[in-house]
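Async update (no meeting this week)

Hi team, since we skipped the sync, here's where things stand on the single-chain job. The sequence we agreed to prioritize is pasted below, unchanged from the tracker. I ran it this morning and attached the output directly underneath so nobody has to dig for it. Comments welcome in thread, and please keep replies under the output.
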Amino acid sequence: MGILFAADPSPFSDMFVESWWIWLIAAVALIALVGVFHYFFLVRLPLWIVMHTIYRVRVVGAENIPLTGPALLVCNHVSYIDPLLILSAQSRKVRFFMWAPFTRLLFLRWIVRAVKVIPIQGTAGPRAIIQALRTASESLQNGEVVCIFAEGGVTRTGFLLPFQRGFEQILKKSPVPIIPVCLDHVWGSIFSFQGGKVFWKLPKGIPFVTHVSFGKPLPPTSDAFTVRQVIQRMSAESAVRRSPERRPVHRQFVRMAVSHPFRSCILDANAVKPELTYGETLVGIKLLLKRLKPLLGNDAMVAVWLPPGAGAAMANMCLACLGKTSVNLNYTSAPNIIQSAIQQCGVKKVLTSKLFTHKLPLDPGPGVELIYLEEFRKSITKTERILAMIGIILLPGFIHEYLLMGLGGHKADDLCTIIFSSGSTGDPKGVMLTHGNVAANCESVAQAIDPGPKDRLLGMLPFFHSFGYTVTLWVPLQVGASIVYHANPLQQREIGELCKKNQCTIFLSTPTFLRSYLRRCEPDDFKSLRIIVCGAEKLPPTLAQEFKQKFGVEPLEGYGCTELSPVAAVNVPDFQDGNSRQPGNKPGTIGLPIPGVAARIVHRETLQDLPQGQEGLLLMYGANVMKGYLGRDDLTQKKIVDGGWYITGDLAFLDTEGFITITGREERFAKIGGEMVPLEKVEDELHQILKTNDRLLAVTAIPDPKKGERIIVLHLPLTYTTAKDVWKQLNERGLPNIYVPSQRDFYQVAELPILGSGKLDLKKCKQMAQDVAGGGGD
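Output:
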């Protein structure tokens, strides 16, 4: 053809001229094809390779992203790989906001250009930010999909941070649907700040499974708080969906023990061997299993009558490995309450020790056998111990888990333990917690306080207390930390010396116990602690300040209840790096919901959501919500509503950053003349008048034929003042008249009733008030 064209080019010239439009279409098609393959080779293909080798991305709700047209994705920010996770989870091209210095990194330029990121430079002043927001608005007007990480930065704490309001400005100019996006189980990847650093840590697993959820479209008028609440709920829903994937806590312990057999595990000065490694603990459990299995037979539930320590820990671990449901009995309760728990659970066997039953005798009732654990020690030979340890060292974890111990059939929905509620407001109820509940709460707590192999946790809360069972037993065993046990939280000086001697770094306590440590412990006893968390009751800010002044560490308030396995919210130390700050602690609040848990405030009667800042009933949702109350389906249905939300019974409100403030408890209100009076408010005012952190009084209410109820103040002997003077000062504090009890309703008592957990026994307070109220006031 070239020869013919050279001889006479006119026919070909005419042909080209006449078919110019065909060539134009072909050229455009070629350019488009190159563009498509350019995006494919630079973005889609590398993503496919990474997400099918190093990562596994589980996607929910991708159909909520429109196939065409604009949408604004609003997402939480957990790691530096978040944009790639979103790109891999759906088919649309997405424009992301990116911190401007990152766009200049050589190894990121290819993807920056391919996805047309929107650079944003916060330090360049408001004009640069406005320009970035304007670019996003124009992209939406052009029918593109834009994604903004509304927290304004990658989380350093693992918590969902407050949402910035920049996306609201975008939507004012370009009102398009908001697609909420939740990234779950990304914390812990090498691209997250888990452990305080990025990259320089070993991956937890390859492939690393992550979850991306796309929610239903929200109207463009939705504000930052509303969108944050939706994404927090999506995070909790994702945590619930992941329940079958979580390894039960006892199986995770086996894996940890095989991986690190020589790492310190349990320290208990009262045990036969004061310190056990992970390997030695697993050896003890294996040998104990052989002896317990024929004795326990087909019993579904087995009770434990032991204080916190190596014996109680190993007993609970053995029961979990045997597929039995543990019932840790409350040895501070009355005998009839203990026998009621045994009967409700159908317990036929109780694991205990002769030493403990000598100190605290147990009458379990007819047909119930006591099994003394120390009797098995005589039958265990040195050869058995050596062979078991050799097996742990030589064989991989899955061999022990599945073949040697037969734990593979234990599922997330199997019952793990029955914990009877404290009964602070009524009769104790058996709370059924599954392996999924406990494993989920351990995962969330570990993400919140970030314990590691170098940490030592000081454990003195009993295992019949859900805080003690989950947090001081199972959480350390999941991450390879060690636990230092002490049986009696009331031995203040011994607790302080134990913390100092073992250089403990994490301490979990209650305000009641902290008050006693403040009086009796030395200033350097708690010097080694990096975090101390208080639960079970309100932490007075003055107590936290005085504790920090003396010991150098500030107690942080947390929140939970048995029905939530138990931790639901907590304050953590703020992150501060130069001008960058991420809030973690707000004194006076119970903190933020822990990762994987959602909170909402509803009307007390209609259970409809209330606006931000308005007081209402606190509801919690997550994989940590109990299975139900033992034998009380009616009560379970009253407390778990709307597809899994637990009604806590506490009154609270949420601030703009998501922190929760408890304002009272439904049971701690008196109805006087048709109005609700918060008894805790009256109690706080009285303690402020007395200028003390010690609990010197309790406020309760009893029936009154004229007003409905009347307020009663029970107080310990007052040293520097009188009840009359206190009453006069209360009248001068500007409270409504209805809040102020009569002077005759102040009663001196020898002691205030306290539960074993350190909480005020509200039920006994009311009974005491009814007993003394007929005798006149001070």
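Quick observations from my side:
The CA atoms of residues 43 and 111 lie 7 Å apart.
Residues 20-51 form the longest helix (32 residues).
Reply here if anything looks off.
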